[in-house]
Design brief:
Elements lengths: L5 E2 L8 H9 L7 H12 L8 H8 L3 E5 L5 E5 L1 H34 L2 E5 L3 E5 L9 E5 L3 E5 L10 E6 L2 H8 L2 H10 L2 E6 L19 E6 L2 E6 L11 H9 L8 H5 L7
Parallel strand pairs: 8-9, 9-10
Antiparallel strand pairs: 1-2, 2-3, 4-7, 5-6, 7-8, 10-11
Helix pairs in contact: 2-3
Amino acid sequence: MSNAAIPLPGPSATGATAANDSAVGTPSPLGRPHARRLREIYRSAGWPCQDLLEIELLATGMLQRVAGPAGHETLRVTDAGIAYLAATLLRNRSALSKHEALVEQVACEMVRAGRIAWRGLGLRAQLPPEAEGGKARWCVVRPDVFSIRNTTVQEYVDPIVHEIKVHRSDLLGDLRRPEKRAAYLDLGGECWYVLGCDAKGRPIGAADEVPSECGVMVMEGQRLVVARAAPRRSRQSLPLGVWMALAKATPVAGLTDDEQGMLGDCEA
């Protein structure tokens, strides 16, 4: 008897699935957890977890059950699953490049405004206690752009946080996290949401969807336009931990020689 792996009958191997579609309904659409599980199985020996994710992936033909020589069962990513992973990777790269491009544009605008800007810093912020009289809470957040004034007076640094969103689903998910906004407001005197555009060139959200404690910028063509100004909050100075994080990070590069040339020559 051959020891070759034998595919077990699955939904794609028989006509039973098509016959029973009206009884069991259409499988749920796949999302990020499904793609993550497919990647994990593709990189591993394919040991099954036997949970709902695998049931849905098997039902859609992304996975195949395989019987080994000793009778144990493993999972194999099918050609359809490989194609799905490739399409997901392409979408993720496209979204990342779109997001990073807008982050770069906002950071450069801050530099042109005479500020010092950083991208993707990990900063420790303080949250209010869950109950009155309770202990303050701490968390680490990563604002897309964090900037301060180029000044030697600590009280004038005017920290500002910019959070970049290029997909509506990402924006709505973020707006459901008040603790994240509270952390940003703890770090900066102002917090802004910068909203990109969808495939039709429309902003992914409106200013009135964003809580009033934050400002809103939207893209119009290639320009950033203020849809609603951010309320200014007084802040005396930055905590030592934030200063240490800034000291260890590399800020966005300053103006190039060409851009400096546009400012005109200075006479001694």
